[in-house]
Amino acid sequence: MTDTGSLPPQEAPPGCPAHAGGVRLGGLEYQQTPSQLYRSLRREHGAVAPVLLDGDIPAWLVLGYSELSYVTANDELFARDSRRWNQWANIPEDWPLLPFVGYQPSVLFAEGEEHQRRAGVITEALEGIDQFQLARECRQIADQLIASFAGSGEAELMSVYTHELAMRATLAMIGMPHSGDDTQRMVADLRVSLDAAEGDDPVAAYARVGERIQRLIADKRERPGSDITSVMLHHPAGLSEEELVQDLITVIAAAQQPTANWICNTLRLLLTDERFAVSVSGGRLSVGEALNEVLWLDTPTQNFIGRWAVRDTQLGGRRIQAGDCVVLGLAAANTDPQIWPEGHVGAENAAHLSFSSGEHRCPFPAPQLADVVARTAVETLLERLPDLVLAVAPEELTWRPSIWMRGLASLPVEFTPVVH
């Protein structure tokens, strides 16, 4: 993961402006109410703010909607290959963000024609997913999960429903059965590799995921289907075994955790906001509005690391030096007062940047597939448990301590027990 390949690491330029006045991206206040930090950064620094990542590693956080759109639209200036970073000499081997920035031969870090080739394969594979069949499968998965706790009258939805459903739906799309011991082990290892808790071994879990994906590829060589793995495997672009494994893991990671948090954040909104309380149990429209509002105000992917400046340039009045890391502040850009001057975010439109933009955005039709999974999960739960309520006061809900993903630590609920 730390391979810096053919692009030699550069020394941090002396007097790099990101070192001066950088704001640490962390702290309890930020984790619970990041919008306050975005506002204060914007007030003090404007659309592009100097920040400090773990270990006080300097970077730039793009807060402005138009500035972020400019970065993502100009790959030749703000590129994805992290081997350009001028901070590699200062990065320890156990740096917490290494899994996200350490170069890997995946579509995530590919550029130019190579990225177009790899992303094109993924796009065609996603286009082959029947969205009606996906909705049926998600409803079946949701029914199975709800049946496992419906008789108790209470549940913690993050662990028994939202993450489990999103993961099983994702595995079904890549061609694995969404139940069974093998799938359960895969689900457990993916959780650890993507969101390790204390005592977990994410490196070992990631290795087991890779081995399981290799077995899946071997199975699909013999018995291809209409799933993502089969389409990618037999695509004329001719992906290598390593490319297939890396890009399938990328697809899984992009589909699972953000979608799970999208479901959870939407349920939180529906259960705590009086605008939805009256009509939520029967209104498909209110669920759709809630899903979209969450993408504007509580988007699952808050910040994305990142882009690396190809040469010295200017952005938002800042001097960005070659090799500087630029973090995409998706959540901050979505609430930029320049696009919402009266402070009212119009949740009725979908011009948010929650799926990023430009060539490296979530490939079409990934957002539509995520919407199918999230909408089916929310609607099925509310249909099966129509008197669902929070088991704690809304202010007692806490967010997970992450500046990258926006999701609750837990979502405890109560309801009338249902005997199936």
Automatic annotation (TrEMBL):
Annotated region (Disordered), positions in chain: 1-21
Family membership noted in the UniProt record: Belongs to the cytochrome P450 family.
Name under which the protein is recorded: Cytochrome P450
Organism, scientific name: Streptomyces olivaceus
